[in-house]
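Researcher: We're teaching a course module on how sequence relates to structure. For the next exercise, students receive a sequence and then see the predicted structure as tokens, so they can try to spot secondary structure elements on their own. Here is the exercise chain.
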Amino acid sequence: MHLVTDFPRLGRKLWQRLTTRSSSNFMFAFLFLGPEQRAALKQVYEFCRVVDDIVDERRPGPKGEEDARAALGEWSREIARMYGDAYVDDDPPYTELGRSLATSIRTFHFPREAFDEILAGVTMDLERLTYPDMEALRLYCHRVASCVGLLCIAIFGDQSEAARRYAQHLGLALQFTNILRDIGEDAARGRVYLPLDLLARHGLSLEDVLASRYDGRFVAVTSDLADAAEREYRHAWDALRATNKRALLPAEIMGRTYYEILQEIRARNFNVFTRRASLRRRDKLRVAALAIARVGLPV
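Model: And here is the predicted structure for the students to work with:
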């Protein structure tokens, strides 16, 4: 397995590539990975995209839901084939993606439960449009984000207990940030991730959110969720101290980027309906430089 490990020698060259390549957050992270790592990360994100699309792009009505459940069930069996479970008669994976992931599993030792939990998370999107409380939302975010993080840290090369805590908390922080950024887009699809008990606490109704009503109540609700995201970022960075920080640099670039997006949302006083929060390319470069500096990689 080829890993990018000679950080002092490669630092300046990688930074030069950062300033000339795509402005994508994921591309910035990819630049610090070896070829096998990049291929495995692409496979993980392709798996997430495929199973997410099964739910999001299903046909309307009961038949669409039935077909989506059947497709997710087949992916559950494909995961079993990827791991060589006996109950699938030792058949190899049926899909090209499944075969590629099976190879990566042998190289990176992906935790099996992470794939199963991601499937459970997208199934939650099939079953509900709202979440009653923060506990239910945290479970969803754990499944669709933290479990992706657990697969990523396997690729990056640190599956220690501290790294797992880092991935758990960072996944929650990123997903809370995504929820805040995408409130308007989700509402247009009839979906509200803001917990119902949080809405009730501030006198905001589900209908208010679906109508994209921006007022003091909405600011109070979103401020509370932003505070929850902030706590998760802090917990992640506390856990990071005991990890192989250089190995987790790609995750840190992503995490610090999304933290800045959270600050952008705050700066706009949580008005997420008029324009989607994002960072300019120069701001992404600045964030990447600071992440590199924190792990001791010279730029």
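Model: If you want an answer key for the exercise: Residues 101 and 134 are 33 Å apart (CA to CA). Confidence is low (pLDDT under 50) at residues 1-23.
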